[in-house]
Each structure stands twice: as C-alpha cells, then as structure tokens.
Structures
1.
Amino acid sequence: MSNITMANADGGPDAKTDQTPASEPGWFDGDETKTGFQVVLRILREFVFPRRLLVLRSLAMMMFGAVTTGALPFLMQTAADEIFVAKDRTVLYMLPAIVIVTMALRSLAEYDTRITEARISGEIVAELRKRLFGRLARADLGFLQASHSARFVSVFSADAQVMNAAASQTLTALIKNALTAIALVFAMLWLDWVLGCLVMISLPLAVYLMGRQRKKLHGSVKKALSGSGDIASMVSQMLQGVRVVKAYDQESAETARAATVIDRTRDANLTTQRTRAMTGPFTEGLSGVGFAAAIFYGGWQGIEGRLTLGDFMGFMAAAMLIYQPLKALAGLQNVLTEGIIAARRVFAILDVAPRVVDRDGATALKVSGGAIRFENVTFSYDTGKPVLNGVTLDLKPGAKVALVGPSGAGKSTLLNLVLRFYDPSEGRVLIDGQDLSRATLTSVRAAAALLTQDPVLFDDTVRANIAYGTPDASDAEVMAAARAADAHEFIEALPQGYDTRVGEAGGMLSGGQKQRIAFARAMLKNAPILLLDEPTSALDANSEARVQAALDSLFRNRTVLMIAHRLSTVQKADMIVVMDEGRVVETGTHAELLAAGGLYAHLHRTQLSGAGEPAVTEGA
C-alpha cells in the first residue's frame, strides 16, 4: 500500500516543464544592435583600460622594437655604400658590432612585449570567466533553463578565448605592427620618397578588398561559434542520456544526428578559414606590384646615376621588412571580426539583469514559527499562460502539508515561490507575516532547505557535500548530521570515509546513499522550513525504508511543504492540498478527501485499480 504513488507530473523545483519559457531565447546570437566599433570600445573600456600600466609598458617596448627595425635599412645602406663601394675598413669593423647590438636590443624588446601581452591576455580571460560564472550563478532560473547548459559552457570556454584574442592580442599586435610599419615607411621615404610612394600605391586597393572579406567572414564566424555550442549540447545530452540511448538501440541514430551538426560546423569553419586565407595572397600579390614598380624605377634611376647602390639596397631592405607587419595588420581584421562576434555573445550573458533581486530597503527575514501564507497568488512564466491562478493557502507553523495533483497543476511553482526563485505576478507569499518580496534573498534562502527527487551532489568529498551551504560547520557537526540521516555507517565504509569524492553528480554512490547525504545536508542547515519533491519516490523498497527513518527525523519541528508522490507520505501529512490547473481545488486529510469523492478520491481510485492515465510521470 505504501508504494502507491499519488498523481504528479509537476516535477520538483528543478523540473523544467513547469517553469521554463516555451522557446529558447536568441541570446547566443549576440546583440546585433551594437556596432563593431561600440563592441570594441566596450572591450577596451572594461578589460583593457584597467590594465593600462601593462599596456603602456608593452607600448614602450613596441616603440623601441619599431625604432630598431627602422634602423636596419640604414645599416644596409651604410654597408653597401661604405664597405662595398667606398671600401672603408673602419666601417667594416664597426658595422657588424652595431648590427649585433641593434638585433639584441630588438630581440629583448620583442621578448618583453610577448611576456607582457601574455600577462594581459591571461588577466583578461580570467576576469571574463569570473564575471561570466558569477552572472550565471546569479541568473534567474527561467533564463538558465531556457537554453541547454552546454551552450553556456561553449560561451564560457570558446567564446571567451576568441574575445580575449580581440581584447589583448589584437590591441598589442595592432600597435606593434603599425609602429613598425610607420618606422619603415619613414625610412623608405627618407631614402627616396618616389620609391616609397610606388611601394605603397597598392594599399588603398588592399584596404577595399579586405573590407569585402570582413563582410563574408562575419556570417561564417557566427555559424561556426553557434555550431560549437550545438556540438557541446549534443555531447552533453548523449552523456546524460547514454543509458536510454543504449536501451533503445539509438547509438547509430545519435551518431548520425551528431554527424549532421559536426559537418555543418566544419563547413562554417572551412568557409572562415578560406576567407582568412585570402588575406595573405591579397597582400603578397599587391605587394608584388609595388615591388616590381620600385625595382623598375630604382633600376632606371641607378642606370642614370641618380640613385646610389646603398640607397637602393637600404630601400629594398625596408620594403622587404615592411611586408610582414603589413601582412599581420591585414590579418588582424579577421581576429577582430571573430572577437566582436564572440564578444556580442559574451555580453549578451553579462548584460542579463536578474529579475528577482533585493528591493531597495529590503530587510532580513526573521523566522519564528515558520508559518507560510500564499495570498491570492497568480503567476505565469514567459509563455504568458498562468501557472497559478489566485491561490490562497495557509500553512501553520510546524505543519506537514502535501501537494498533489495532475501534471502542470502548479505544485513546483509553489515551492519555487517560497524560495523566491521567482516573484508572484500578483499577490504575496509571506513567512511569519513577512512579504518575501521585501526580504533579502540571502535571508529567504536561509529560511528553507530543499530536497528533490534526484539529490544534487557535487564532484567533491562527502564532507564538502554535507557541509554545502554550511561551510563553517565542524567535523563533529557534519558527522552528527550524517548520523541523524542514517548515513554515517556507509560513509565510514567508503575508501576515504568522509574525504571520499562522490564523483560527477554523486555517480560513485547508490541512489539511497546520495539521498541520505542530501538529508544530512538539510539537517546540518537546520532551516525552519523544509521543501520537498518526494525524495523517496525514485528509491527501491529497501532504500526507502532506511531513508524514511531519516526523513521522519528531518520533519520534526519544521514546517514542511512537499510535493507528494507516494501514499505513505500523503497519509502522514497534516493537510493535503489538491491542485488542478493552477488552483487549489480541495484541502483536507486523507480520510476527509476520500469521503468528499472529489479529484483526490479519483486519483486514489486510479492508482489502486491501475486503470486510466498513469499517475506518475516524475520529473516532467
């Protein structure tokens, strides 16, 4: 009899069906209303400017490196004129030493620039990830549950790195190569201004062609980054549902589905690489035109005696040296375009403001007895359809109240409102007469402990999982909570006892062991209000018997609001609340509701007979 389950498909506080917007938001496409220039300015303002001292140091080294590079053509000119033409032995002895010193100083400047750039880059990506993690941790449930978690992981890893490249590498590379190019242009114009103009005659055309490339690059980069998120989502889903995949013999189907997404992402990446690869040939081809014109004009001037060998050699050295920084500058537009797209996706998360926040003048909730009142509460998610409609309900201090009803009745939502995961659209939720919307979130969350069907454990030690939310608890307090939850015995038998790591989602433990650790965590928190989505519903009979004793201990001296699946739980409740379509349709004890012959009696008969629609679709 005790294994009969009451109808409920509402899931627990973690269930998505009852609380997730119908459509996934397009945050991962980024905010296209912001221009690339605006995005770059924000990156500079928020991430680069705070590190201005490091940037200035890097800038100084880059200027020094540009000056030493610009000196090389003049050294080449001196070598040609003074050594090969004038046969000056003094210059022959001195010039190699000058070249060695110049190149050594240039190398030191390059080394320092790279180290400083790496430091700037590391600090930016670390700050970016900290801000992203903090924003996700504080985001509203509706926002987090409207997209697959792997998409957030993709932004956290891949997009953050791409944005970092735009924020740090682009800035330093832009300044470094621009300064080097300016120094070499100055050298060319100093040696022969006509030759300098001939070399640079193709630059306007190069700028025009690269502008066209940038437009093509934008679309392919956007598809590639989105594809990375799709791949991450598919891998995550497959790993989480691998037992179902194998049980239904869908390995081939899942592999084919993944192959489609992977191929689409591959094509987008290939398009990106093709567009990026065109930068080099463009630069080389156009530079070749300038070189050819310079050689012809320089040779003509040399034959006519108007240009010395040293001037020509020095000029050609500058022309060859300028090729690399110009090519690098041309390639930077690709990195910058990718960075802007990634930054839009990152900022789309950073800019999401939580709706549930502390109001101005919010005060700490002071709980005495733990009475809960839902006062004419109406609530709807982003879909607009009310999930709760004018619910009024009173829970006396210390009462054990069970919520039952069909799927989508609004049971999970009531638990969510007590924890202020959401605020009511209309009406109020009060604890001991205090409106939760006017209380601080910290004090509201401290007033209640949450237990769900599938206990959430983190990949840490047993001790850390029990003390989660009560980090200052002593070892003695942790062990006392474990004993109260009937968990101490099996914990001591683990390889490292309380220091044993439980694995991802507690995968190293059985369902009953995980549930008892979750009970111990709730006991250690010792909150006056207990919220449950029947924590024994997924356990076998043996596990349930041990867990039930711990649950009875946990119920003592607490106000309990629970979504009930099992008849044994319902019968122990002081009051049963029957919900349907967002309304409270019946209240009373088990016997009273059976005698009334309403919805509760119908659900009870359905379960006993095993007829009709299945009573339980847990987690829906």
2.
Amino acid sequence: MNNTTAQTQLTITYIFIAFLFSVAIRMIWFYQFSGYDQFYFNGQFMINTNDGYAWAEGARDILSGVSQPNDLSKIQSSTAQLTAIFAKILPFSFESIILFMPVFLSSLIVIPLVLIGRSFNNLEMGFIAALLASITWSYYNRTMIGYYDTDMLNIVLPTFLLWSIIWAMRTREDKYLLITALEILFYRWWYPESYALEFSFFALILLYTLVFERKNLYNYKLMTLMLLAMPMLDELIRLVMVVGVFFAFKQEKMQKYIYYVFAVAVLIFLATGGINPIWGKLKSYVFKSSVSAAKDGLNLHFFNVMQTVREAGHIPFETFANRISGSIATFVLSIIGFIYLAYRHKVMLFALPMIGLGFLASVGGLRFTVYAVPVLALGIAFLIVEIANKMPDKKFRYLSMILLSAAVLYPNIMHVVSYKVPTVFMKDEVKVLDKLKHIADREDYVVAWWDYGYPIRYYADVKTLTDGAKHYGSVNFPVSFILTHPQEEAAKMARFDVEYTEKNFKEKRPFRNIELMTVDAGFDDTNDFLLSLQTDDVKLPKKTRDIYLYLPFKMLNIYPTVSAFSNIDLMNGNKTKAPFFYMSRSFKDTGETIKLGRGISIDKKTQTVQIGQNKVPMRRFVRTYYDKNMKLRKDEQMLDFSSPISVIYMSNYGTFLVLDEEAYNSLYIQLFVLENYNKNLFDKVIMTPKAKVYKLKI
C-alpha cells in the first residue's frame, strides 16, 4: 500500500470518528429529556427553534401540494425543499427528519476541516480542529438536535469553500476552479445571505493576486468563476455561465483572453447589484438605531426590531470568547495558533473573512461568532500539534496531543451538558393550536406576537400578521397596539390590520398599514386616527375572514418588549411613557411583607407597594386561581381608587404582577390573565392555563 493510499484511509478514518463524535455529543440533549412528556407531541420530540417552523411549514406544504395564496409559506426555500426530499426518500416520520437533520448535516463540518489539515500534511491538526469546531459553544447552540434552521449548513458550506480555495491556491488544479464556483452556487441556494462572505473571499483573493501574483492566470480564472457564480441572477443562469466558462478556460486558445473574460465577469457582477446587499446587511446589523422612519408618505417613525433581538446585540468579551472557543484561554491560544499557522502557511490568510465575520459579533451580536469557530479551531489544533511535536518520543507526542485536546474540548462538552434548552412550545400549548386547526379556516388570521408566528402557522394552519421574518417596526406596531391597548381600540385595530394586510397582498403594495388606515380615514396625523378608535365614528373595513387572538402565558415574559413597539409617537419618533409592568416568580413572604425583587415589595399590613424609594397604595389586589374544573376564578379587592398601581397574584402560576392602569386594562392582561372580555367584541374559543384563544366578533 503506497503512502497516498494510506493517507487517504487515515483521512477517511479521522472524518468518520470526528463525525460520530459530533453526532454523539448532540444526542446528549435527546437523552436528557427523553422522558419529559411536555417536549413531545404525537409521540415525537418537538424542535427547539422558532424559525424551524417556517421551513417545516414550507416542507409540509410542498409534500401536501397545498398552499393558499399569501400564506407566506416558504415553499421556495432551500431548507424546505431539501427537507421535503428527505421526507420522500427516507423511511422516517416528518417530525423525526426535522428533529435530526441538524445533527447530521451540521456534523459534516468535520470533512472540510480534516481535508484542510491534509492539505498541509497535518491530518492530526485537521482531526483535532474537527472535534473542537463541531461542538464549540456557538456552533453547538445553533446546530444542536432540534435546532432545525439554515444554521445546520451555514458554516459547513463556507468551510468547504475555504477548503477548495486553499487547495486551489496550493495545487493550481483546474478541478478546484469548478468546485469553488459550484460551492458558491450551492451556498447561495442554501443561504441567500451568503453574498457578503462570498464577496469577502473574492476580495481577499483579488488583493493577494494584485500584491503577490499579478500575472498568475490561474488566480484570474478562479476569480472569474467566483464572480460568475455570485451575481444576483437565477441559479440556472449562473450555473450555465460557470460551467461554460470553465470548459472554455480549458481551451489553450482562450488563455490570452482570460483578462477580458475577467473584466466581463466584473461588469456582470456590478450590473446585477454589486455590493448593494453587503451594504444593506451592514446597515441592518452594525449601523442600527432604535427608531426607523419611512421615506415617503406621512414619514412615520417606528421602533426598530433589531434593538430587541438578542442575537443582534452587543455581548461581553467573556461571552464572545466562550462562544468561539469554549474559554478565554482557548480563545487567546487559538488566535496565537492561527497567526502561527498563517505565518507557516500564508494561504490560511484566506480564512480571514470568516474570522472577520465572527469578530463582527463584538458590534453586531452573538449570531456572528459561529463563523470564527472552524478557523480558530484550526489555530488551536495547529498549536497543539506543534507542542506535541516537541515531545522526545512518539509515546509522549500522542499523550500530550490527547491531553491538550481533552483540555480544550472539556469546557465545550460541559456547556453541552448544561445547555438544556426547551422546545419552542410545550405539549399543552400545541394542543391548543391543534384544536384551533379544526376550528379556524386556512384563510383566517391569528393575531399573536411575532415570536409565535411560525409555530402557529405550522400547527394551526392559519395566517398570521407577523413572524420571524416579517417583524419590522411598521408591521409590529399594530400587533403591539392590539395586545397592549384596551379591548375596543384593540378589536378595531385587529380588523383594520388584517383587512389592510390582505388588501396589500392583492394590490401588491408595501405593508404600510397604519399610514394607509390614517389616510383612508381622512386624517393626516396618525395620532388622530388612533384616537378615533376610541369612538364610534371610525368606519371599519368590510369583514372578509375571521380573526382569532392567541394569548399564551409565556408572553408575560416579554410584555414590556411587546408594548415598546406601540409606545411611540409615529409622527415624530418620540417614545411615549411606557406602562409600568413588573413580574416576579422569585418572591419571598416574610410575614409582614412579600419581597418581589429589584427593590419592589408588598406591605401586607398597610396594603402598599414599595417601588424603590417610593411607597404607593394599591388600587386593587386580585388573586386568580383555577377551580377543580379548571375554570378561572378571581378574588378582587378594591382598595384605593386614587392609586395607579394594582397587584395581581396568579396563584396557580406562582406569579405576581405589579402594574399600572394602562397595563392592567390592556387586552392581554384582561383576556389572558383575568378573562374579563367584552362579550360584544370577543368570544371565548379555547381556554387553558397555558394559552387562550378568543375570536373577534366585529
């Protein structure tokens, strides 16, 4: 057996072991919760990411061949299409496929890492990097079992792209020209937002060529095919261009025209949008503000959703380092190792775009850290191998390699063990939606906060106003208004928003519902329109479908965030006074007082609430509880009408609410917490402690 064959066998062995390791670690969550009934529905574990239900809905509709107009089902998405293919050819249930897809697809990252190690004749480096990268904090968090999302290939594909670029630049073999371009095509099909990273790879190769290898025709061939794979054109057109030019390049007579072909590729790239998508992403994640304004019409101002998305917020350095490498020490050593690796093999500088995007997390939020994981895993792995190579004999070499590898793997494995995330919905919540599916029509709308949009559409098969993709400020304002304002205003806004949403679909116009409502009602000031909802003068649009309200208990956790989207003067962007709302589940009864935390306590003797340095009398105290028939009951004491602060004790939930009149009278509090609903406006549909559904009557 020659050396090449032996190396190939060892490469395959390392890939196989690393793949099994990655899969096994991801199964820890499965065994931790295998007996927890609330995570199961219809005998199968549910997924644990909200966005996953978007792709699941799309795949479901592809398989059924049924998708009603304007339902926003992602039947055109690559994730849904690939899932549908798997569901057709694999002998497993649909629920099992979406649960386990992240496990197996994300574990493919070990392949390019081991192959990168092989390109430097350092398989041990690739193997150690594969073990580490496959389970590092941020990568595991976004690819664990049940995290059914595009992330299951979002790092695998650029790592493959890095591998092919490295091999292309090192071997100058024609096949890597085509492989690199095809990887870009597949990466873009899978994840359209890959544009910025693809361009970064291209820009670095261009810079390298201009500085070091200006006359190297191979580099221009590579860049040409990359550019032809990148334009904002149909996939088939790009594929034809890539394959056609690749075979043209293989003709000897074409060599003198390479610069011209490259120039044409540049023009095509610029003519189809160029760097516009990149700039758009930078503005969205880096140069973000709390308020965004429409550019025409009434020039309304809305609360920017990016200010409330945790993954797009600033993160502390320790979290940043842990997510990329598992610990600060490993992170620092990984950087040192990468610098040393790049010094020894300058082709590794082509990995800088992934590191740069990962480091963008320092300003753009934790979602980006995952991009730096595989590259810095190579850095620490190279350092480990270099240290091991200094050992006096083979025995100590392998022992040191094993111990050092275990040291960097350990904190990441411990993170996996402790990272016990729940499923998106509990079984009892899904039961509500499953029941609603048999009550509501597919053309009906369910009003709920955007966090619940995708799961609602998947389980109840209805339409929603907002979801994980459609949740910009102008869309969130009316939904926030509905959930956090009094019932009459909320009911009218619900009818307005649904009917205008459908009208926008039919007339193919932007979703500027509030502005259109204002203008159509004869106002030039949105504040006047909103005030008109309190009167009987406003004319509602014609009813075309039923509207349901989905009110889950878990929304209590985000009530202040929900209210923030409508606590704004749309005409000038000034934030209005937020309602006072405080929730406590960690309280202590000392006998005379109930300490709720954060400087808030209840004096039972004087019936007052201590809020910081201020002592405020209670307007009312309400205790809610469920009787043996699971009917909500209330004990209400009216205490001091001059006070704005009320206290609600939800005894079955072990939850105290301290809130002012604005929050107390909001639709969500009245309908979910107290079940005080206006019978002229709403009908009860489904009442459970976990979630409640009402039907709009107007």
3.
Amino acid sequence: MSKVSVRRPRVSLFLKLYGSLLVCITVVALVTWWSLQGINGWRAARYREHMASGMFRLIALGTARHAGHERASWLQGLSQMMEAPFDVVQGRRQHFTWIESRDLKVGRAVVRLDPSASQADIFARIPGEPDAYIHTRMSKVSEQQAKALAALFIDELQSVPLAQRSQHLQVLKPYFYYQVRMVDVDAVHLDAEQMARIAHKEVVLILKQGNSPNSSSVRILAPLPQSRQILELGPLYLFTWMPVRLMVISAILALATITLCAYLLVRPLERRIKQLELVVRRLRAGDFDARAEVRSSDEVGQLAFVFNGMAEHIQRLIVSQKEMVRAVSHELRTPVARIRFGVEMLAEADAAEDRQHQLQEIDADIEELNQLIDEILTYARLEEGQRHLQLTTFNLADLLQRVRSETEALRVPVKIEVVISAMTEVVAEERYIHRLVQNLVGNAVRYARGRIRLSGGQDAMNNWLAVEDDGPGIPEAERQRIFEPFARLDDSRTRASGGYGLGLSIVEKIAHGHAGQMSVGVSAALGGASFILLWPRQLSTLEVTQEEAKPLT
C-alpha cells in the first residue's frame, strides 16, 4: 500500500520567529514581575525593621531600667502613649529564626507582618536579660506614635547626666536609620507657631510634601529639658515602591518596539527565502537555467551562492550525461557492428586459418569494448567531483621514467626521453597523475613523428609537468574543444585512428581535482603539441575511505 504524502501547512517565518520572541519576552516579563514583587517585599520588610529598630531600642532600654511593679506601670503608660499593648515575652516561645535571632542580638527590632490581619508583631531584646523581649502588636502608625518616639528619646537622654548626653546620643545613633541630632533652637528655621509650641515644651512634626514619595518626609522636633537645644529626628521618608505603572508602560512600549524591529528585520529575510524557494521550484520543474540572486554575504546569501553552484553542477552533469549517452551509443555501435560482421564471417569460413583470423578480430573488438567501458567508468567517476584525493608525496622523475618504460614495452615507433632537472618530490594522488601522464603520452604516440619528451619541475608556488611531441600540433581554435568528452580532431572512429575521445577529458578532470590547470601550446623544442599541467605545491591531505579509493583500472 503506497503512502500518501500530506502537505504540511505553511508557517510564516516571521510568525515563527516573532512567536518565539514573544514567548521569551512574556516569560521574561513574568519573571521580572515576580522578581519585582519579591524585591519590593524584601525592601518593605527592611524598611519596617529600620523604622522600628530605633524606637524599640529606646523602649528596650527603658524597660531594662524598670523592674517589678515599676516595669508593669511603665509598660502600661507606654501602651497608652503608643496606642498599642506592650508586654515582656520569653524568646524560646517565639521560635525566632536564625536571622531574627542575629538581628535581635545586635539590638535591632524584628517585625513579623501578618497581611491577612493588617497587623505586625514587633520584638526587641531587653539588654541584660538573655531571654526577655519587649513585644507589641501594632495595626497602624499614627502621629501620636511619632510624638511618643521623641518622648522616649528625651527620656533616654535624661537617664544620663547632662554632660554625657552628647556621648550617649552617639551610642544610640547606630540603631537609627535616619538623622538624629541635638541642635540649638535658633539654628532651626521655624515659624512663629512652631517656635511657640517649642517654648511650651511640645513636640513639633514638620511635614514636607513633595511631588513624589522620595521627596515627601517628616521631621520630629522636641525641646530638651533644661537646655536651649532641641532634639531633631529625621527627615523620615516614606517607603517608595518601584513604579509599577511606569514599568507596565515601558514594557508595552518595549513590546511595540521589538515587534516593529522584528518585522523590519525578518520581513526582508522572509522575502529572500521565498524568492529562493521559487528558484528551487523552477529547478525542480526542469528549468536548469534558474539561478538565485545573491544580494549579501549573510546566511541566506551564502545559501543562494551554494545553491547556484549546485544548480550549475547539476546542469553540467545533465548536459555531460546527454552528450555521453549520445557519444557512447555511437562509440559502441561500431565495435558491436564489427563483432556481428565477424560472427557472420566466422559462420561462413571453411578454412581453419580463416576462422582463427575472424576469432582474433572478434577478440580485438571485445577488448576495444572493455577499454571503452573502462574509459567511460573512469570519466563518470571523475565527473562526480565529490570524492576526496588521497594525497601522497612521491618523486615525479620516477613516475615519468615508469611511464616511459611502460610505453616502450608496447614497442611504439617513437623515441621517448625524460628531461627533469632534479629528484622532484611532489604532493598529489600518484595513481591519478600516473593516469594523466599515460593518457598524454598515449595521445602523443598516435601523432608524433618520432620523438616525445617528458619533463617536470617546481617553482616557489607550483609543480609542473609537460608532455611534448614532434607531430603536427593542435590548431589554436581546437585547443579547448579537445578536452570535451568524445571530441577528436578527426571524424574517423575506426580502430586504426585510435582513442575514444575520453583520454584528454580524463586528463582535464584529474587536473581540476588537483586544483590545477591544463594548457595546450606549441613545443619550443620539438615543434609539435605541448601539454603542460600546473598544480599547487601546497595541497591539504584528505583521508578517504577504502570504498572511495577505488582503482581507475
């Protein structure tokens, strides 16, 4: 049962990228929001503890100065003044955490907020009593408590001699997270009403209303008994939460900006990919001249460049394949026809000598077919252009001498000489260079009158080798066409002319595989044709598998 392919719905690249971006931004926004709430909660807790630490240090010190019935009476008066109940509790029953115990030990207050009941439990350690803590439960902060703070401070300063008040104030300052000082009444800028209240020994609250919570504050002024000085506490600033409204507006603007930027960035990319897709569809439909437009060197531009190279390679392979099919069919037809003719002659031959002659002719035609098939397979393998070279270092002079010996063993009617200045070590795939020289020498043998010269050498950048002969040479107009498959300078395709038109094509493919160039000219020494291969001395050694390293013959 054949499978039915279902076309998937197209998903816009912009929607995919922006959708992913939007998800990421949403996650970041949620994490930021939760982090903001956590930070604000921590800041609020620290603010409450800072505001309470100074006052409750004064209350703890005052509680420590009273004992027995005096303490109970003092706590009752404190409760009335602070509008909240105060008592002394044992620490082991409160189950303080490690952080709370640390803060209590150094004299700071601990605030336990109960948001559901809109109230807070506040604790402070009583100096000199290891497990005794002053405790209250407050549900609001009032003006009366601010005045009580000034009264508690003055009461604490009066507990020491007048001369030691300044020194004692310095001891108390570390427990307050706002300014605490004693100044002359004349140094404070007060209006007449405020000065009158100071003269009547009243506590004065000065509210400064600003445009933002950061600029709004409260100062507490209290006259010191038996002195021209006043106690100044503050300014005390209100707690400022991070501006959530501004954050929301900024987030909306950021999302809009990111949306616009993402669209402007992705839209051209999507358009270019769609154009590349259209070119691919044209190529799939058989339009092998279709090419993508390379506008830039980014990823899409590189993709278009690689695609164009692939399209050109495919077009070249298809054209080469068509030409090869036509040429192979023509090349195979001649030996097959001769074999058929030989079989018919063999059937009609009566004498043993005639039959033997026909068998030899048929065998020669079969050998010609084998050689032709080998040439075709070699050319097809090189035409793939995707295998790696198995590079080795070998001596070029030895290779040229070996080709000369192999050619002379065939008893060719020409003289072959090797001219090379030194024992030249070159890097290449030896079996391919050997095949290249063999093909060039075989081509020269067919046209040379009597001499062939093999030479080679190196310069600073390149290796080179040359095959020259004293034949008629190659017309300049034909020097590029001879490297085309099945192209020959004559139209004869009989066995007497030799060759199949693939030898020089194989030579050109081997040269291309070594990043080299083949040039054809006139031999200055012999006057005939001159074939010169030039390839770089520096080639990257690439390992190949055993399957890739198949022999050519």
4.
Amino acid sequence: MKKKVLAFVLALALVFALATPALAARTFTDVRGSRWSYKPIEYAYAQGYMNGIGDGAFDPTGTVVRAMVAQVLWKKAGQPAAAITNPFEDVSDGAWFAEAVVWCKGESIINGATETTFAPVRPVIRQDVCVMVYNYVKAMEDISLDKATDAEMAQFSDAGSVASYAEDAVRWAVKSKFMSGSDGKLNPNDTASREQLAQFFLNLDSILGLDTNIDLPVDDEPEPPPFEDAVRISQNAAGVYVNGLAFNPQMGYNSQVVLGQDRFYADESAGNMVNRSGAYIAVNGAFFQSGSTLETDATVISNGQLIRNDNWGSPAKSTFVIDKSGRASIQHMTIMETFRKFRNGEDVTIVDPLVAETNIPLPFTNDWGANRRYTRAFGATVPGHVHTAVVVDENGVVTAKYTDADNVPIPEKGYVLCKRSLMSQWDTFLPDTEVGDTIVHNVEYKGSTTQEIATALSCGPTIVKNGAAYGNNDTYAEEKFGSVKRGNLARMAIGVRADGTVVIINATCDLPQLGQAMAALGCQDAMNLDGGASTLLYHNGGYIASPGRKMTNLLVFTRAQ
C-alpha cells in the first residue's frame, strides 16, 4: 500500500509540499523538458515528495544531506513515533528533522556519525543513499532483497570502489534497478544531487509496484531559437571610438575556455587556438605573466568543470559566466572547493579549527602556500616541491601518496591534492590520508545567481555595475588590480546587457573611459579583459583586433550544431 509522502528540504532554503498541485505548464524554471531528470522531478513534485527552493526553481544539482533522506523516509513510513529518545547533541528537539532522525536511528535505518552526533547537514554520497533506502526496505517493506551477482556488478568499471559496508545495499540497488549508474559507472562516492534523489524515489515506487506514470506538464518554453549572428559595433561611445561585437549567446552558440596547448603555463598562436577550437567568435581572456612562467591569473570553468579556482579570496574577482542554459552574466562570486575523506565507509574528515568550523568540509584554495588541486590542465607533474601530495583517480579513490617530493605525477584523469607546508598542528587532512581512502570533492559558487555554470573566466577590474560606469584607483586596488596600467592603452572589455546580450569591444583609452563606453553601449555589468599586445577579437573568419603575441587563454564561442 502506498504511504503518503510529504516533501522534505532544508530549512530556510526549502519548504514542504502538503498537497499535490494541479500540473499544466512546466513546473520549474530551471528544469527543461529535455533534461534527463524532467520526469523524475515532476513525478517527485506531483507525489508531494519534493518541492522547489523558491522563485520557481528546483535546483536539480543541489546537494542532498543526511537530514533530507531521514525526513523523506520517515514521512514514507507514516511519521511514526520514535522508539528511543534523542541521543544526538547536534539535533535539537525543535529541529524540523528531529523526529525523523531519531526514528531512523531507533529503527537502525540511518545511524549517527558518532554515538552522540548525527551530522544532519553532511552531504550524502550515492552508495549511502542505497544503504539508507536498503535499511528502510528491510524494515518496512515486503519485497525481494535479491542482490546482483559478481557478473552483474562487472558491467560497472568502478564497482570495486564500493565500500564494504555498502556492498549488500549497492548490490541490491543494482539488482532491483534502484540505481543504474551512467556511462558504465555507478559513481558510488559522488555526492547525491536533488535530481538524482528524485530519480531514486521514482525507482523505489516502481520497485514497490506503484504506478509511476503521470501526465507530464507541457514544456511551455519554445524550442531554442535559430542561430543569430553577432552585430558589428564601430562607433563613438561616450567620447571613445570602439570596435566590437554584440550577440546573444543563447541564439545558437556554445562556449568554452581554450588554453594554449590545452594547459596552463603554455602559450600558442591565436590562429592555432581559433582554428582547432572551431571558434566563430573568440576574444582574449585573462591576464598572464610574460616570460618563462606564463602563469594565467584567472578562474577557469569550461564544459561545466572547474579547472582553476582564482576566486577563493575576498573581494571576489569579476567573472564572466555562461550558465548551462547559455545565458551570460557577470558574477562576483567566491568559489568554495571542499573535500571530505572516507575510509572503509566512515567519514574521517578532520578540520583544522583555525581554518574552519567543526564538521565543515575543509576548504582548499589555489594559494601557493595552502592546499591546491592539480589536474592535467596544469601539466604532467605538479610544479615545485610539496610537503604532502595524494593522487586521486577519477572515482575519487586515493591511489598514491607522496611526502617531501618534487614533480609529483598528475593522472590523466582525476587530480592531485597537495600542500607546500603545514599550517598548524591540526593540519592533518593530507598527512593522515592513506592509499585506498575516498575523497569527495564539492564546488559551491557562493554569491553567484547560478550554480549551473558551463563556462567562466575571471579578470577585471569591474568597469560597469548596475548599468553605470564604475571604478577608480581605489576599487581597482580592492579587486587586486592595484598594478593595472593607467593611461590611454589598447584595451578590451566584455559586458552583458539586461537582456543577456554580450558586448565585446576594443578601444584605446583609459579604464574609466572604457567603463563609460560600455555603459553607453547598454551594458548592465562589464569588466576589463587583458589588453595591449594581447588584444584579440575574432569573428567568422576575420580579426576585428589582431594580437601582437602568443596567447595563453581565449574565451571562445562556436556555432551550436
């Protein structure tokens, strides 16, 4: 018999759904009908399992935490009274999830992180969702608990990374089709997302023999528009003569950041970079050092992956962003990379109290003296000497550890985490890591209006804010551009109008004049890009501005197929 389920979500961010709404148009602004999770999300919403996060959004890639899973399982069981008293110091009796957590503990469905703590806001990895639901099914439902054979598990290349404590649950999940994985992988150590949770509970209802067919809402947004070419700009704007382009990246474009020779610390002729990327529009990007280092001072996100994080300090750098719907914006975001460490299925993350609060994932930054993450975009080896480094494969498993080492090898897939020196006596995250541990990596774009970022490149300083020219020597210095060159120089700028149109210009002027020109061209927000000999703007086979040197990074737009 189907038990009524109320939605669960985090307090202050999420609300409970008490009734099934009538469905007509697409329910959530950030979940298109073409998205793989469209039916699971609409099903979970229609059944009252999950709701949005406000302002019409669902946040499909948002992180699932332990309290969420406890709450939905408790609701699915009919909100029974707990058989035990609350044993957890970090679960106050008045918390929205308190009854659910205590019931789950009493039924041995979800145990505490320790005897006295539950860690309600700790992210949940996929194999742990399997464990929690498997425990629920054993306690509350009368269905088969058959498990996948070794042969059935062998279809997944990462089956060996399932923790021993989760093996029975994952084998049941595979056999029952509760979890099917993707691209031949189970991804057991990946943090579960909200859209994955919606799919999990649609799967569970199907396993329980419930009718999971629903009348899907109509996706009332039109099909993506046909390609629309950029409009050439060649005019006087606020007393400055500018050359450039204006175009809407949602009108038939894809975006990416292209690195010289596809890695940092390297340069390449602009012509090669344009040709091999298939660029329709290309513009020079962030500042880089000349000479032997060729260090690129920028955050780089491409194809939805954070490649380099330079937005970890305060204030946050201006960052040009294209979200996964193709909409452009200028964001002032701090990027928080956090890592958790698991050993034999147990969270063994230990946080330096001088760095972060207890039970908060340890932050890693690109600061040379702190912790740093290196992928193959940085080359074949980690530059310089490290105190400690661990090699993490594509499944999050630590495969090697180095101490007091030079030139630590970076894997083709995965990454290296390293420290140049210890910061305190509690700085034990990497020194105490062992081969075989699992590292879970999460990224949060704090201060951004979108978490679904496809492409991003930071530079600056900010030259237009809220539709008006912005900035002076003080603001440039605040944004860490105290050494930016003054006077009339060849400059590049990129900005975004309120309707999402991107404006890119080349002009010879000073920075305040550049901001005035971009504001006059209708930009709501804009930022400076590299200039001088790096000045480059390419469009459909020709250069509006030609570079005077090799480049380390370009922002590229190709025509969508």
